[in-house]
Write a structure and sequence with these properties.
Blueprint lengths: L20 H20 L4 H4 L11 H26 L1 H21 L3 H14 L2 H10 L4 H29 L5 H8 L1 H10 L29 H15 L5 H8 L5 H26 L3 H19 L5 H30 L4 H30 L3 H18 L1 H4 L7
Helix pairs in contact: 1-6, 1-7, 1-9, 3-4, 3-5, 3-6, 3-15, 4-5, 4-6, 4-8, 4-9, 6-7, 6-15, 7-12, 7-14, 10-14, 10-15, 10-16, 12-14, 13-14, 13-16
């Protein structure tokens, strides 16, 4: 029976030596630039759509989630193809697919052409699953979970930096045409990736000595991981779409710069603390995950009564602590679950679950905001995080037997 702790490797372990640290950092840099346009330009959809015939920007909400929906639908397919034809090849395909879709979006002169480009961005992209599948084929245990934590840091850095750069360039290049500029980024990432090796999972290795032991079979059930992933993404993402409106209600007259900083605080918290959290909870990820859900619930609950800048900032920091704990511990559990499995298929399905949580969060946020106002989404997120925190600590769900086959 296996527990949530990471098993030790032995000298006889046939898994490859893996990627060097500088190579993992190169993959993280590629993930950062690939995320840059995908995360930096959607907040400006309301400024883009009037030039495409949608004067009121009424399609912004649907177009915002469109890449996410089609990324979720395509992820399992690309994951399986990566296991069959090579992880590096499919990672290159994802970067090139993003570049093509950005070019089409920047050149679009109608709403329908722009929408089609966003569909292709989601379906042809899938850099999350492709990147994590590539890493999982070469790394395992603490090295893999540390690399997955680094990839999350790359996405958080993009989420903080990209909207700022897009806004700074807007006086010279419209956000719509910036898609053309951003197409260069995944091309540069693809060029860098060509210099990296093709990892091979143990089952794919050839020429192994007959006396070498077979790869350890998968012993961790994926169902709890998928449930926690969906619930965590739902609880954290649901506060994003209407946060600016909530800040305007609670803190009237606050500057746009301060509003942007409040939005970025949880992600900055991750960037500053993720490495230390990984070291602290590497061998107790279930505890960290339950604590992460509890802090997310507490942080979201604090948004409602916050009527001062200090109170709102404190609520965002508590949310950031929960975000950091949850994301890091989910990475540790994903690294454990990847042992003995085809990584492309597993991470493709994990992306489907994650994107599904994001889409569900966006739809629920829109519904409850329309019915009850901008504070309603954070209350729904509070309830979702609290219920999952209690479930994660319940003995029948938290027992090791549920994580073993």
């Amino acid at each position: 029976m296996r527990t949530g702790t990471t098993p030790r490797t032995t000298p006889a372990d046939p898994r490859p030596a893996g990627l060097e640290r500088r190579q993992v950092h190169a993959v993280a840099a590629c993930y950062f630039v690939a995320s840059f346009a995908a995360l930096g330009l959607p907040p400006y959809l309301t400024a883009i759509l009037p030039g495409l015939g949608d004067s009121k920007g009424s399609w912004a909400g649907l177009l915002y989630i469109m890449p996410t929906v089609f990324s979720a639908l395509g992820a399992p397919l690309w994951g399986r193809l990566a296991d069959r034809f090579g992880r590096k090849r499919l990672l290159l395909r994802a970067q090139l697919g993003l570049s093509v879709s950005f070019l089409l979006a920047g050149a679009a002169n109608s709403l329908w052409a722009f929408a089609l480009a966003l569909v292709l961005q989601g379906f042809l992209g899938g850099t999350f699953a492709a990147t994590n599948g590539y890493l999982a084929a070469a790394l395992e245990g603490p090295r893999l979970s540390r690399a997955l934590t680094l990839m999350q840091g790359s996405a958080r850095a993009s989420l903080v930096a990209a909207p700022i750069l897009v806004g700074a360039l807007s006086p010279w290049v419209s956000p719509h045409r910036q898609y053309l500029l951003m197409a260069v980024l995944p091309l540069a990432a693809a060029a860098l990736l060509t210099r990296l090796p093709e990892p091979k999972a143990p089952a794919d290795q050839r020429g192994r000595q007959p006396s070498a032991p077979a790869p350890e079979p998968a012993a961790v059930s994926l169902r709890p991981l998928y449930v926690y992933e969906f619930a965590f993404v739902f609880a954290t993402i649901i506060s994003f779409p209407y946060l600016i409106a909530l800040v305007d209600q609670r803190l009237p007259g606050v500057s746009a710069t301060v509003t942007g900083l409040l939005f970025a605080l949880p992600h900055l918290c991750y960037l500053l603390c993720a490495s230390r959290v990984h070291n602290a909870f590497l061998h107790r990820p279930h505890t960290g995950l339950a604590l992460g859900f509890a802090l997310v619930a507490l942080g979201l609950a604090g948004h409602g009564p916050a009527h001062s800048l200090l109170a709102f900032a404190l609520a965002r920091l508590v949310l950031g602590a929960g975000l950091t704990l949850g994301l890091v511990c989910l990475s540790v559990l994903a690294a454990e679950a990847a042992r003995g499995r085809a990584p492309g298929r597993m991470f493709g399905t994990l992306e489907l679950i994650s994107k599904g949580g994001a889409v569900a969060a966006g739809l629920v946020a829109a519904l409850v905001n329309a019915a009850y106002g901008a504070a309603a989404p954070v209350l729904v997120g509070t309830a979702a995080a609290l219920v999952t925190a209690l479930a994660a600590t319940a003995p029948r769900l938290f027992a090791h037997s549920r994580w073993s086959r």
